[in-house]
Design brief:
This protein is α+β, with helices and mostly antiparallel strands. It is about 40% helix and about 15% strand. The protein has a 4-stranded antiparallel beta sheet. Bound molecules: flavin mononucleotide (FMN).
Length: about 220
């Protein structure tokens, strides 16, 4: 598979088989993603992978934390905050396409709320990973994390491994930090659930479209 094919094939997966990804493959992917470029070669990324028993404990710890009444407290403003106009429209279109795939009606707020909770069950994936950078860094450094994240996702795609990048996994850093090994000076930017796709999961039938070339680029000669 070449890069073009990986870009065309990758899509967000929200339903997984329980089978774990072999440890040496996870390490190989991160070892390659580490070659991503970054501003002044600062390499501000860190990926904390949580698998096996620790993954089960983490899911429980996050739900205990939520059930105790704790509200989301991400270190960085979340991507969904402050959206307007066409960006808000696309966010809604994305959400409704996902709910449609699950047969959830738009007016069914309760079902939509329960669906959101699937984020912290890692959509049933056997692995969750948390991408962090030093908390003192800012937006320009976050570009480096994005490049690293996309590298991981394309390398997964090449190996037949499915994933879902998740801003939602930055929402409850306290229980995450108790279990995942996040460097002390870092703050979590987002997470990524990964494993092998469950082809029978209705959520995986959702397809998101993109704006045309004329909208995303301009050309001056
Ligand atoms: C940084 C980032 C954060 C995301 N956060 C979430 C999330 O919290 N929950 C979720 O279900 N999907 C999340 N997504 C997945 C997007 O909704 C998805 O990439 C987008 O709708 C395009 O669909 P595609 O990946 O299938 O092409 C996130 C994606 C990215 C890149």
């Amino acid at each position: 598979m070449d890069v073009t094919e990986a870009l065309k094939t990758r899509r967000t997966i929200r339903g997984y088989k329980p089978d774990p990804v072999p440890d040496h493959i996870i390490r190989e992917v991160i070892d390659l993603a580490r070659l991503a470029p970054s501003n002044s070669n600062t390499q501000p990324w860190h990926l904390a992978v949580v698998s096996g028993d620790a993954r089960q404990r983490l899911e429980q710890a996050i739900f205990d934390h939520m059930n105790a009444g704790n509200k989301p407290n991400p270190a960085f403003p979340p991507g969904g905050a402050g959206l307007w106009g066409q960006y808000k429209d696309r966010q809604y279109a994305c959400a409704f396409r996902y709910y449609d795939s699950l047969g959830i009606k738009r007016e069914d707020k309760k079902a939509r709320g329960l669906t959101a909770l699937r984020n912290w069950q890692f959509f049933g994936a056997p692995h969750a990973a948390f991408l962090s950078m030093p908390k003192t860094m800012n937006r320009a450094n976050a570009i480096d994390l994005g490049i690293f994240l996309q590298s991981v996702m394309l390398l997964f795609t090449e190996r037949g491994i499915a994933c879902c990048a998740q801003g939602a996994l930055a929402a409850f850093p306290d229980p995450v930090r108790q279990i995942a090994k996040i460097p002390e000076d870092n703050a979590i930017m987002c997470g990524i659930s990964f494993g092998y796709e469950d082809p029978a999961a209705p959520a995986n039938t959702a397809r998101m479209d993109r704006e045309p070339l004329e909208t995303v680029a301009s050309f001056t000669t």
